[in-house]
Amino acid sequence: MDLFRRKRITDLQAEALEDQSLKRCLGATHLTLLGIGAIIGTGIFVLTGTVAAQNAGPAVVLSFVLAGAASVFAALCYAEFAALVPMAGSAYTYGYATLGELFAWIIGWDLILEYALGAVTVAIGWSGYVVSFLHDLGIHIPPALTAARGSLVTLDDGSTVTAVFNLPAVLIVALISALLVVGIRESARVNNVIVFVKVAVVLLFIAGAAHAIDAANWHPFIPANTGAREHFGWTGVMAGAGVVFFAYIGFDAVSTAAQEAKNPQRDMPIGIIGSLLICTLLYIVVSAIATGVVNYTQLDVPDPIAVAADHAGLGWIAGLIKVGAIAGLSSVILVMLMGQSRVFWSMSRDGLLPPFVSKVHPKFQTPWITTIVTGLAVMIPAGLFTVREAGSLVSIGTLLAFVIVAAGVLVLRIREPELPRAFKTPLVWFVAPMGVISALYLMISLPWKTWERLIIWFVIGIVIYFLYGVRRSKLAQKSR
Hints:
- By secondary structure, this protein is mostly helical.
- The protein is built from 18 helices and two strands.
- The protein has one domain: Amino acid/polyamine transporter I (Up-down Bundle).
C-alpha cells in the first residue's frame, strides 16, 4: 500500500487539456473579480473595528499589512501551481502532484473547513445584516427565525425570544446554490455586479470620510500593552494579524476555477495575485481612515465603517454601507460554495470519493450534484449554528492549505526543476519558506481548542480515507 503515490505533472497537464466537461468561459477580469468577491466581506466591514478596539489600536493598519504579507507569499505559490497544473482541485491537486495521495486527501478534507464552514460563517453574518437592513425599512422577519437554534433574540422592547432557526441564512445558501447549478458564466456575471456594488461603497467611504481625519486619533499609534498578550503593544498587533487573516481568506478559491478559465496559464496568476493586491490596498486605506476619523476605543461595534461614516458627517452613506456589506457577503458565499463543489468534483474524479460526485450537468456543464450536496451541507449548520461555532475552524484550515502549497512549490522545484512554468514564484527560496513560516506562526497563535477540533476532524477524515479512498483511488487501481 503506497500512501504517497503521486500524480505526474505531465499527466495532470494532459488531463487539463483533454477534459472539456466544464465550460471554459472565464477571463482574467472574471477571475480577478471572483477573487475580490471572495475576499471583501466580513474583514473590511466588521474586523477593522473589533481588532482596532481590542488588539492593535490605530496599528490595525500594520495588522492588515502583516496578514496581507503572509497571504502574498501563499498567493505567489498558488499562482505558480495554478499556471502549471490548471485543475479544479486547487491545493488538493497540488498536494497530489508533489507530496502524494495521503497528503492530497488530508488537504482535500481540510479544504472543507475553509470553503464549506467559511460559507456557513458568512451566511450567518449575511442574515444579521439583512435582518437589520429590513428592520430599517420597516420589514420585520419573525425573531424566532433569525438566529441559531436556542439563541436569545432581543426585541425592541427589551424582551427576548428563543430562536428556532436562521431562515435568511438558509435561503441565501439555497439561492446561490441554484445559481451555481445553472452555470459558471451566469454565476460570474452576478458576482461581477455584486463586486462593483461593494467596491463602489468602499470607495465612496474612502472619498467621503478622508476629509474628517483627525491625526490626534492616530496617537499613540501602537497603544501600550495592558499586560495581556493580545491587548495592544506589538504582541497585540501580531494577535490582530491572526484575527484579520480571516479577511484575506478566499483568494485561493480562484484556483478552483482553473478548468473554467479560457487561458489559465496567463489568467490564473493575474486573478489570484491581482485580487489579493487590490483588496490589501483597500483594507489598509479603509482601516487608516476609520481609525483617523473615530478614536479606536469607539470602534468595537458590529458596523464600525458605518459608525466612522456617521462621525464624518456621511449619515446618508450608512445605509449604503449595509447594502455593500450584504452584497459583499453574498459574493463570498458564492465563491466559497463554488470552490467546495469543485474540490469534491476533483476528488471524485481521482477515485477518492464515489463516482456520482463528479457528474456534470449535460446542459449547464456544472458539477451539479456536488453543488447541491454542498449547498445542503452548508444550509443545515447555517440555520442552526452561531458564527462562533461555525467559524472557529475556518482560519486554521486555510493556513494549513497555505503551508502545504508553499512547501509543495519548493518540493517540485527540487524534484522537477526543468518543467516549463508559465509563471514562476519570484525569489522562491525566500518566498516559499516565508509562506510556510508565516502561516505556521499564525496557526500557532490560534487557541488550543481550535487545534483540538482540527485533530478530531482529521481523525474522521483518515478513517474515511482508509475505509474507501486508499483502495478505490485511480492510482491504486493502476498499481494492481
